[in-house]
Amino acid sequence: MKVNQAEFIISAVGPSQYPVDALPEIALAGRSNVGKSSLINRMINRKNLARTSSKPGKTQQLNYYRINSDLYFVDLPGYGYAQVSKTEREKWGKFIEQYLMHREPMKLLLHMIDLRHPPSKDDQAMYAWLKHHGVPICIVATKADKIPKGKWQKHIKIIKETLQADKSDPLVLFSSETGMGKEELWSVIEQRIGY
Ligand code: GTP
Ligand code: MG
C-alpha cells in the first residue's frame, strides 16, 4: 500500500466515539512497550504520529489513525503493566474485550510479541482468548533488530510453541528500527481487507 495520507483521528474512550464510516480497522495488541506505536509509525513512514514512549502504560485509549481512505490502525492500550491498578486494568480489559468481540469493521488483530523473550503469561492468555473468540490474528514478532539473525528462527519457534499458535496464523518478523517486515505486513493486511 502506498501511504499518501496518515492522520490521527481520535483517542476513543468508548464506542460512541468510534468512527462511523465503516473503513476496515487493523488493531494492535500487546504488552506495554512491545512496540505498537512504533510499528504504526514505521508502517506509515512517520517519525512520531503515533506517540511512543519509553514509559510503559501510556496508551490508555483506543487511538485511531486513518491511512488514506483505506483503513484505520487502532492502537490499543498495552496489557500487563503492573503499575496500573487492578480495577483500572479490569475496566480497560472489559472495554478492549468488547471492542475485539463486537467491532464489525475490525478485520485483523496484530498480536505483538517481543522476539527477545518467550511470550509471557499475559501474552499466552491474550492469544488463547483471541482464538477462543475467533478473532483473526497476525502474530508480529517485534524488535528483531535486537536479536542476531542466526537466532531468529529459534526465537520464532519458541514464540509459536509457547503460544500454541495456530499454523494458519501468519507470523511476521518485524523491526521498527530497520523497517524489516514492513512490506510483508502490508501484504498480510491488504489481503485481509481485500485491497
Ligand atoms: P505502550 O503504548 O506503552 O503500550 O507501548 P508501545 O507498545 O506502543 O511501545 P512503543 O512503540 O512506545 O515502544 C516502546 C519502546 O521500544 C520505545 O523506546 C521504542 O523506541 C522501542 N522500540 C519499539 N520498536 C522497536 C524495534 O523494533 N526495535 C528497537 N530496537 N526498539 C524498538
Ligand atoms: Mg503505544
Automatic annotation (TrEMBL):
Xref: Pfam families: MMR_HSR1 (PF01926)
CDD domains in UniProt: YihA_EngB
GO CC list: cytosol
Keyword field: Cell cycle, Cell division, GTP-binding, Magnesium, Metal-binding, Nucleotide-binding, Septation
Domain of life per record: Bacteria
Keyword Heme: no
Entry keyword Cell division: yes
Gene Ontology molecular function, alphabetical: GTP binding; metal ion binding
Cofactor field: Mg(2+)
Domain EngB-type G, first and last residues per copy: 22-195
Single GO BP term: division septum assembly
InterPro entries to which the protein is assigned, alphabetical: G_ENGB_dom, GTP-bd, GTP-bd_ribosome_bio_YsxC, P-loop_NTPase
Function comment: Necessary for normal cell division and for the maintenance of normal septation.
UniProt similarity note: Belongs to the TRAFAC class TrmE-Era-EngA-EngB-Septin-like GTPase superfamily. EngB GTPase family.
Protein name as catalogued: Probable GTP-binding protein EngB
Native organism: Paenibacillus validus
